[in-house]
Specification:
By secondary structure, this protein is an alpha+beta fold. The chain has helices at 87-101, 116-123, 142-152, 156-168, 171-185, 188-203, 207-213, 219-225, 238-245, 257-276, 289-308, 310-321, 327-344, 349-362, 364-371, 377-393, 395-404, 415-424, 432-444, 458-469, 471-480, 506-525, 527-537, 539-544, 552-567, 571-579, 584-593, 599-614, 617-631, 639-677, 684-721, 753-762, 768-780, and strands at residues 7-13, 19-32, 37-44, 50-55, 62-65, 69-75, 78-84. 59% of the residues lie in helices and 7% in strands. The protein has a seven-stranded antiparallel beta sheet, with helices on both faces. Strand 3 and strand 4 (50-55) form a beta hairpin. Residues 144-649 form the Serine/threonine-protein phosphatase 4 regulatory subunit 3-like central domain.
């Protein structure tokens, strides 16, 4: 259907007293056989499906509001509304409803909503009391009028009657005329009565009364009446604020007079609701529901009208990105777009999608790229708010724009790099803006919201882009503040450790903590890309320099970063940690912490407890070989003794396997003798094959022992440099020809996974599993961590 007069939006009121958009379609009034009566039908304009089928009941109260709204209730707590695109269509359907109910279309309400209990009660009251008779609108009768208005608020039926009386006699405008007289005469008593009257009329909760009270010629007088609260010694000056302080700024001239009037009205009504009217009590909380709806529909209408005016929005973005635009003008333009986005939050999801797509098509992201790099703090703050609306709406849209940017030689102009620099350069001592931007960055790099269904390569492409062009910008402050830590080793033990390059001040520490939080998120969610970056930049070593920070929260952030890496149980990471001896700063921090029982102490012990419980063999061997002497005095927890126990168990298991291997090698000699004594000459082929297998077996074992010696020598070299533990006792080594050689010192576990793999592949005995189960039972019986009693 192309008839725009009948084009409507269907709304329902939810439990939170907010209107939910059920869709857009075209309305008609038709006799429906199944419902036995004339009904309102709304069919969706997208697919023709039925959005609404509602019989016009003779007893249902329909209300017409703001010339383009029809509101009614079909059942308890189920309110419906039709919002028409054109007034003519609303009038047409309203006449049909009134025709069915036999009412006058000139009225804005067709029925008086009366509860059954009240209906029965009113049947007993004389007929004259059904009408609320308003006293004459005179100064001397103001007290009587105020008493009448306040007395009807507790009765729904009397509120309806009073609302009808106020509308039918043009009473509101007469009251506001009396207000001007009282103010001229400085009649405080009369002004106090008028405050009670106007407040009571607002609490009648009638849209038709709001239309009169909030019209251009009445609204300022309504605000004036509300200034004279009897509870105040001096009246508030709300009108002075609205007319002089609050300025309406048109960044681009608005030619539509209806739109201008709607914007003024919405601002003033919002001011009345938020500032002037007191917070409703529990008994009054539903009195202003229609006022909330009035503001809601006004905002929807404003956004729709601005969105449809393509020339207006095009001009806004053209000036926003024009280099010739003055800074003050650009500030106003950015604030306008920010407020425009805030208004859009009242829209329903499908309308909000259309709104942000319109902004994207007009070039909101290139404009943000420009304004976020400006020096003006207000402009940057407003641009950050706009960016947050866009990221919240569609991270994929932002990612797509970023990847389509031309790859210029200067990475600084990229939108994400602009955002990162805003985070790094936040001048707020508490880093409020940096925290907000860090949250937005985390949303953008979160694989969970990358839509694999629509674009299967989005995750791979964007993360590759981010690590190539943006990661170095993010980590620059971290690397700069840990670059020359070697000098700090000259500081005396126990002295406050301050980086000589950049002072370890609180704001810098906070910024580094934010960056570490983001990097920790990357470790958890970006397995390949972050692993490559950490290895190439030796990032963990630089991060662990921050264990020396005087700010404990920063040291904990560094420790958390390492804990996430170890938590992955990735052997590549484990080898990197062992090769770099990266446990040393952690253990130094534990020893420097002394006997203090604090969060740092607990977090470090938890790290080692995790390694013990998960039985990460390579790390256990490294820790015990290099640091056990320094840790064995810590007895208030059993963690380090447990690590030593795990180490010894694994060493015993390895020895048992070697002994079995030696035994099997000797049995081969006996087989050879039997074979040589065998008189059967027909098995020459088998003899050759057996001899070849024997040679291969001996070669494999020889290579294994050579690698074993190399691992032992490497471990001994490491022991000479760090805080070494006692070297394990020597064990006899057997050569392939069964002749014992001189003893060599070996570590319990091979230092490289290559040797470990060769060891596992040599001989596999089924009874090993039984021994491992016995070991696990022994571990379960070990004592748990005890809280430290000393302070």
């Amino acid at each position: 259907m192309s008839d725009t007069r009948r084009r409507v939006k269907v709304y329902t009121l939810n439990e939170d007293r907010q209107w939910d958009d059920r869709g857009t379609g075209h309305v008609s009034s038709t006799f429906v056989e199944r419902l036995k009566g004339i009904s309102l039908l709304v069919r969706a304009e997208s697919d023709g499906s039925l959005l609404l089928e509602s019989k016009i009941s003779p007893n249902t109260a329909y209300q017409k509001q703001q010339d383009t709204l029809i509101v009614w209730s079909e059942a308890d707590n189920y309110d419906l509304a039709l919002s028409f695109q054109e007034k003519a269509g609303c009038d047409e359907i309203w006449e049909k409803i009134c025709q069915v109910q036999g009412k006058d279309p000139a009225l804005d309400i067709t029925q008086d909503p009366i509860d059954e209990s009240e209906e029965e009660r009113f049947e007993e009251i004389p007929e004259t009391s059904h009408l609320v008779e308003l006293p004459p609108c005179e100064l001397s009768r103001l007290e009587e009028i105020a008493d009448l208005v306040t007395s009807v608020l507790s009765s729904p039926i009397r509120r309806e009657k009073l609302a009808l009386a106020l509308m039918s006699e043009g009473y509101i405008k007469k009251l506001l005329g009396l207000f001007r007289v009282c103010e001229d005469l400085d009649n405080r008593e009369g002004l106090h009565h008028l405050y009670e009257i106007v407040r009571g009329v607002l609490f009648l909760n009638k849209a038709a009364l709001f239309e009169v009270m909030f019209s251009d010629d009445c609204i300022m007088d309504v605000v004036g009446c509300l200034e004279y609260d009897p509870a105040l010694v001096q009246p508030k000056r709300h009108r002075e604020f609205l007319t002089k302080t609050a300025k309406f700024k048109e960044v681009i001239p608005i030619t539509d007079s209806e739109l201008r009037q709607k914007i003024h009205q919405t601002y003033r009504v919002q001011y009345i609701q938020d500032i002037i009217l007191p917070t409703p009590s529990v008994f009054e909380e539903n009195f202003l529901s229609t006022l909330t709806s009035f503001i809601f529909f006004n905002k929807v209408e404003i956004v729709s009208m601005l969105q449809e005016d393509e020339k207006f929005l095009t001009e806004v973005f053209a000036q926003l990105t024009d280099e010739a635009t003055e800074d003050s003008k650009r500030r106003e333009l950015v604030n306008f777009v920010k407020e425009f986005c805030a208004f859009s939050q009242t829209l329903q999801p499908q309308n909000r999608d259309a709104f942000f797509k319109t902004l994207a098509n007009l070039g909101i992201l290139p404009a943000l790229e420009i304004v976020m790099g400006m020096d003006d703090l207000q402009v940057r703050a407003a641009a950050t708010d706009i960016f947050s609306y866009l990221v919240e709406f569609s991270p994929s849209m932002v990612r797509e724009f970023v990847m389509q940017e031309p790859q210029q030689t200067d990475d600084d102009v990229l939108l994400i790099n602009v955002v990162i620099k805003q985070m790094i350069c936040d001048s707020d001592p508490e880093l409020g803006g940096a925290v907000q931007l860090m949250g937005l960055l985390r949303t953008l790099i979160d694989p969970e919201n990358m839509l694999a269904s629509t674009n299967k390569t989005e995750k791979t492409e964007f993360l590759s882009f981010f690590y190539k062009y943006c990661m170095h910008v993010l980590t620059a402050p971290l690397l700069a503040n840990t670059a020359h830590d070697k000098n700090s080793k000259d500081l005396q033990e126990g002295s406050t450790k301050i980086n000589p390059v950049c002072p370890d001040n609180f704001q810098t520490a906070q910024l580094l903590a934010l960056i570490l939080e983001l990097l920790t998120f990357c470790v958890e969610h970006h397995t390949y890309h972050i692993k490559t970056y950490i290895m190439n930049k030796d990032l963990l070593r630089r991060v662990l320099v921050l264990m020396n920070s005087k700010h404990t929260f920063l040291a904990l952030c560094a420790l958390r970063f390492m804990r996430r890496i170890i938590g992955l149980k990735d052997e590549y990471y484990n080898r990197y940690i062992i090769k770099g001896n990266l446990f040393e700063p952690v253990i130094n921090a534990l020893l420097d912490n002394g006997t203090r029982y604090n969060l740092l102490n607990s977090a470090i012990i938890e790290l080692f407890e995790f390694i013990k419980v998960e039985d990460i063999k390579s790390l256990i061997a490294h820790i015990v070989d290099n640091f056990y002497k320094a840790l064995e005095s810590i007895e208030y927890v059993q963690t380090f003794k447990g690590l030593k126990g795990r180490y010894e168990q694994e060493k015993d298991r390895q020895s048992q396997r070697l002994n079995r291997y030696r035994r099997d090698a000797r049995s081969l000699d006996e087989d050879e003798e039997l074979w040589f004594n065998d008189e059967d000459e027909d098995d020459d082929g088998e003899a050759v094959e057996k001899s070849r297998m024997e040679d291969d077996f001996s070669d494999s074992y020889g290579k294994y022992m050579e690698a074993k010696k190399g691992a032992a020598n490497g471990a001994n070299g490491a022991n000479n440099n760090g805080k070494a533990a006692a070297i394990p006792p020597a064990s006899p080594v057997v050569t392939p020809n069964n002749s014992p050689t001189s003893s060599v010192k070996t570590v319990a576990l091979p230092a490289t996974p290559v040797v470990k793999t060769a060891l596992v592949g040599l001989v596999d005995y089924p009874d090993d599993e039984d021994e491992e189960e016995e070991d696990e039972e022994e571990e379960e019986q070990s004592p748990r961590k005890r809280p430290r009693l000393s302070s």
